[in-house]
């Protein structure tokens, strides 16, 4: 029943000699609704479907173009029955979509002009200025109010006398712990590890191993000595060794003389101490005699 | 010292191992001598302190003996 008026509409259009439109342009939707009572047709509307309205049908035109999603906000079946023409642009009032269905569309007022919105970045384009302190370009806002001047605080004499703490120098590297054994140093094993002074306890040895990152203390290697093969040194080193041995001998002789002199002094000192002790005993005896003579009368 | 062509001249060492041992022993003795000298120095400082105390005691005794001598042999108002 709902398609009978479409057939009639088509016949009316043929009478008006409206050129046929391509099928793709039919997007005017129709929604069947009973919200408009048919017994109160809009006045002055020259609808060609007055007989349908009189028969008890009510129609509501959905004049939204199909550029919108027809299924998003409408309920019920929709039918595309009209060309994709804006109702306001239709020259003939009878050809307006609402006119087909007996609903008169009022001409919508023109939209108010809106200010063209610009993005924040577009508004500051072309007003960038190089900031020498920041080292890069900074936007310049022409209409922005001037920045308030920083308030100058009163100088505190106590704070002025205080000095800033020293700034830690982060460039300094953390000093490395002193090397226990230098690889370049030719150290004799007996002089280091064999000496009583350098004997390490188990804890010290453990800490030393942790410091060195080794599992075992490796004794410094001596120059390889093979009894069968001769060993040579340069004559320069030999002469230096001879001179050092002479110097050591002279120092040892001087040390012996010093020890003899110290021994003589020690003997003399012992004699003097003995003499002092005997005199002290004599003084003590005489003092006891004087005390007895004076206080025991 | 050097040969005609500048090559170094070497001296043969027969008892290298013994020399190394002797040098190690000498180092050990030198360290012991250093410790002995340190102990003698400590004893010397203690001895100097005792001698100074003894000297102070003698000065004190001399002053008291002088007072006794003055009191006994220079009577007042007899």
In short:
Chain A has helices spanning 4-15, 50-54, 70-73, 97-100, 120-124, 157-161, 189-192, 202-212, 235-295; strands spanning 28-32, 59-62, 78-82, 128-131, 136-139, 231-234. Chain A is mainly alpha-helical. Chain B has 78 residues and is mainly α.
Task: Write up what this structure looks like.
The complex is a heterodimer of chains A (297) and B (78). The model of chain A is unreliable at 25-42, 44-48, 52-77 and 187-195 (pLDDT under 50). Helix content of chain A is 37%, strand content 9%. Chain A has nine helices and six strands; from the N terminus they run H-E-H-E-H-E-H-H-E-E-H-H-H-E-H. With 297 residues, chain A is mostly helical. The radius of gyration of chain A is 61 Å and the shape is elongated. The longest helix of chain A is centred in the last third of the chain and has 61 residues, at 235-295. Among the domains of chain A are: 4-100, no CATH class; 187-222, no CATH class; 233-297. At the A-B interface, strand 6 and helix 9 of A face strand 1 and helix 1 of B. Strand 6 (231-234) of chain A pairs antiparallel with strand 1 (10-13) of chain B, so a sheet runs across the interface.
């Amino acid at each position: 029943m709902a398609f009978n008026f479409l057939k009639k509409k088509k016949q009316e259009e043929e009478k008006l000699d409206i050129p046929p439109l391509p099928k793709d342009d039919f997007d005017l939707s129709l929604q069947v609704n009973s919200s408009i009572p048919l017994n109160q047709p809009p006045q002055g509307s020259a609808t060609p479907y007055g007989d349908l309205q009189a028969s008890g049908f009510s129609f509501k035109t959905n004049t939204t173009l199909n550029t919108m999603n027809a299924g998003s906000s409408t309920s019920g079946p929709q039918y595309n029955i009209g060309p994709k023409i804006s109702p306001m642009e239709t020259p003939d009032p009878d050809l307006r979509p609402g006119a087909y269905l007996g609903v008169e569309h009022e001409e919508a007022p023109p939209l108010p002009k809106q200010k063209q919105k610009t993005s924040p970045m577009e508004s500051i384009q072309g007003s960038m200025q190089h900031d020498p302190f920041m080292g890069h370009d900074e936007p310049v806002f022409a209409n922005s109010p001037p920045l308030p001047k920083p308030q100058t605080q009163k100088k505190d004499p106590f704070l002025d006398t205080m000095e800033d703490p020293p700034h830690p120098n982060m460039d300094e590297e953390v000093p490395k712990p002193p090397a226990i054994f230098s690889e370049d140093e030719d150290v004799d094993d007996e002089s280091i590890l064999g000496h009583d002074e350098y004997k390490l306890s188990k804890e010290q040895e453990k800490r030393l191993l942790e410091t060195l990152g080794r599992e075992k203390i490796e004794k410094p290697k001596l120059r390889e000595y093979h009894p069968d093969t001769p060993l040579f040194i340069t004559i320069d080193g030999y002469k230096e060794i001879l001179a050092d041995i002479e110097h050591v001998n002279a120092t040892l002789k001087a040390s012996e003389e010093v020890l003899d002199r110290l021994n003589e002094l020690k003997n003399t000192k012992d004699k003097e101490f003995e003499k002092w002790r005997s005199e002290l005993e004599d003084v003590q005896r005489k003092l006891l005699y004087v005390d007895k003579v004076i206080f025991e009368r | 010292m050097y040969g005609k062509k500048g090559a170094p001249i070497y001296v043969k060492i027969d008892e290298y191992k013994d020399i190394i041992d002797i040098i190690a022993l000498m180092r050990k003795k030198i360290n012991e001598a250093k410790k002995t000298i340190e102990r003698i120095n400590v004893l010397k400082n203690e001895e100097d302190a005792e001698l100074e105390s003894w000297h102070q005691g003698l000065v004190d005794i001399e002053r008291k003996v002088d007072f006794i001598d003055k009191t006994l042999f220079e009577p007042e108002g007899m």
